[in-house]
Amino acid sequence: MNQQALLDYLYAHIPLSQAMGVTVQSLAQGSVTLAAPLAPNINHRGTAFGGSISTLATLAAWSLLRVGTDTLDPLPRLVIRRNTVDYSQPVAGDFTATAHAPGVEVWNRFLDTLAQRGRARITLSASVRSGDVLAATFVGDFVALRLV
C-alpha cells in the first residue's frame, strides 16, 4: 500500500479523516505519519481540539496496523479497543501523528495469534507534534479479527 492508496482508503472508509483534512505525510517501513491542518480542527481557544488530536493519533496507529496486515487474505477487521492520550502542550498550528511499529517479536506474535485463533490484540503508540513540539502521546489497544 502506498501513501495515496492509504489516503484514499481513509477518506472512503473513515469520512472524518477527510473532514479533518488529514494527509499521509510518510509511510515507511515500520512507521506511519499523518498530518492535519489546524483550521478544521480548531477549538474555542484557537488551538487544536483535543478530539482531533486523539483522532489523528488513533488514525496513525490504525493505519500502521492496516498497512502491516495489507497482505493478509482475507483482510482482518481492525478495531480500537481502548486508548489513552496524554496531552502535554497545546497545539497552535498544523500537527502530525506518527505511529511506530512494535518490535519484531511483538509483531510476529500478533500475526501468529491472528493466524491461529482468528483474533489478536496489539498495543500501538503514536506521538503528536506541532512543529518540533511534542504535544501528546497516544497508546491504544487494537484488535484484529479474521473474517471468513
Automatic annotation (TrEMBL):
State the InterPro entries in the record.
HotDog_dom_sf, YiiD_C
Residues annotated as domain Thioesterase putative: 4-145
Q: Name one Pfam family in it.
A: YiiD_C
Q: Where are the transmembrane segments?
A: none
Could you tell me what this protein is called? YiiD C-terminal domain-containing protein
Q: Which organism is it from?
A: Viridibacterium curvum
